[in-house]
Amino acid sequence: DCLKADQIILFSPNTLFNSYVSNVLPELGEENMQQVTFQEYLNHRLSKNYQVENPYDQLEYVLTATDSPSYHSRVASIRFKASPLFFDAIESYRESLEISDMQFKDLIFRGKPIVSKEQIAERFYRKDTSLRFHNRLEKLQDWLLNKLKEALKVERHQPWVLERIELLSDEEYNKAHAYLAKKHGFKRDSIADYEVDTKELAQLIVQQRLRPLQRRVRAFEFIDMKGIYKQLFADPLAIKQWMNGDTPAEWPSICEETAQILDEDQLRYEDATPFLLLNELIKGFQANRTIKHIVVDEAQDYSPFQFEFLRRLFPSAKMTVLGDFNQAIFAHANETVDFHVLTNLFGPDETEVITMTRSYRSTKPIIEFTRKLIPKGDQIIPFYREGELPELKRVIDHEELRRSIAEKVAHFQSVGYNTIAIICKSAEESRHAYESLSTIEDIKLLRKGSMEYEQGVVVVPAYLAKGIEFDAVIIYDASEHIYGDESLRRIFYTACTRAMHDLQLYSVGEATPLLETVPRDCFILA
């Protein structure tokens, strides 16, 4: 069968990339394909009840908050919650809920509970226990809807209903009159002949007041999902019963911080997918069978959770996954992250790995330089395209840096480059760079919310530049102070590989030790 565009969905890294694809690469025909970011999907599902952190804010924290007292426990939390170990723990925890510890919410009507959460739990664990978990919840849902019908019969005789009838405006009364007349078979021209029965009007008023509660019951909102997820962290020792393996040393702190953030109705990025996974395991997956093919770009940014999630969301779809694990810059990525994540999820028979070693983006000198920055970089074969050697210039202070960059930008513009990126490590550094370089005409700052890919001169954090290429790239400050840690190797590599024709690095003071792996004949020391 021939695939149609609306049966394909592209998960792209960010809205900026979507704009880049449709503006710069229209010949790929991707403008007809549905494009979405994983974050947009999370927001669609969760933002009604929670403030959901995005991956860029998470990464910004990891890059800039190293002095925070909770820094190490947060990084440990990010890594652990992205692991297959935590995924299995959530599945086992969900199974344990069949026997005990489901959390429910009171059904409140006019300030009083119609059914208390204790009564709901008692019913759930006493009735229909031989049925499958989701069928038990459906039976519980039916029971609660019946309870609401019983409440309707009781409430329609309460004094508040008579008071409400007396306070109806003419418009409200006429609307109710017309509705009840129609219900009794009166035609439009004879509605005036219908006399309102007060009992029926009382029933209608209570029905309308109960409707939001009925909607919540139909949507399984009587289940306390926040309470159930929070319960995972209530006792640091509890998780042992649901997992085969060890929790990180920081687990007690992780539990405390997670519960605290949940109490504020916030979900950190590392909790969003596990929370949603648990939600779907309890309420049933909202699967989409019309999508037949998924394309995941920048696959190295996804955790096993997210792949498993996509697989379950689109059970009829095949998956094409594109990525460069040398650019795995998100905090959940460990040192060994690779496509085995997919082989483990889908099985070796279902997975075909095609390794592309030839790079066509950049000139040969830029590729020779960047491949020395990473382990196994020698496997990358440069396409033979001539160009200048990358250049590293050491400057004394930020004033000299500002002057040098302004001159270099003017030079790049004079040779006809349309896209010039000044790439920084973080959004925080990007803001400082943008303010410092504001004298450059039409310079733009790209932020995480930027919707449009801009040509010209842009200042951008490395993680937003991923997937995009520029005629020339300036690494704003490749110093030991900024890129002193080995954990930043991938983000530094990602920034340098955005350059197609020219790569210029500046360093305020001593250059990054990450350059020690690059032979001196691969770049010019200015």
Number of helices: 20
Give the fraction of residues assigned to helices. Answer: 40-55%
Taking all Cα atoms into account, the compactness measure Rg is 29 Å
How would you sum up the global shape?
Answer: elongated
Beta-strand level of the residues, as a percent range? 5-15%
Secondary structure tally: strands: 17
Instruction: Indicate the structural class.
Output: alpha/beta
Mean pLDDT metric: 88
Distance between the termini: 58 Å
Largest sheet: 7 strands, parallel
Poorly predicted runs are none
The side-by-side strand order for the widest beta sheet comes to: 13-14-12-15-16-11-17
Give an overview of the whole structure:
By secondary structure, the protein is of the alpha/beta class. Helix content is 43%, strand content 13%. The protein has 20 helices and 17 strands. A seven-stranded parallel beta sheet has the order 13-14-12-15-16-11-17. Strands 2-1-7-8 form a four-stranded parallel beta sheet. Helix 4 runs parallel beside helix 13 (269-283), helix 7 (133-155) packs antiparallel against helix 10 and helix 8 packs across helix 10. It is elongated. The mean pLDDT is 88.
What is this structure's SSE topology?
Layout: E1 8-11, H1 15-24, E2 34-36, H2 38-46, E3 51-52, H3 55-64, H4 71-81, H5 84-96, E4 107-109, E5 112-115, H6 117-126, H7 133-155, H8 159-166, H9 170-183, H10 198-218, H11 225-231, H12 251-263, E6 266-267, H13 269-283, E7 293-296, H14 304-313, E8 318-321, H15 340-346, E9 358-359, H16 364-371, E10 381-382, E11 391-395, H17 398-414, E12 419-424, H18 427-436, E13 444-445, E14 456-461, H19 462-465, E15 470-475, H20 489-496, E16 499-508, E17 524-525
Parallel strand pairs: 1-2, 1-7, 3-6, 7-8, 9-10, 11-16, 11-17, 12-14, 12-15, 13-14, 15-16
Antiparallel strand pairs: 4-5
Helix pairs in contact: 4-13, 5-13, 7-10, 8-10
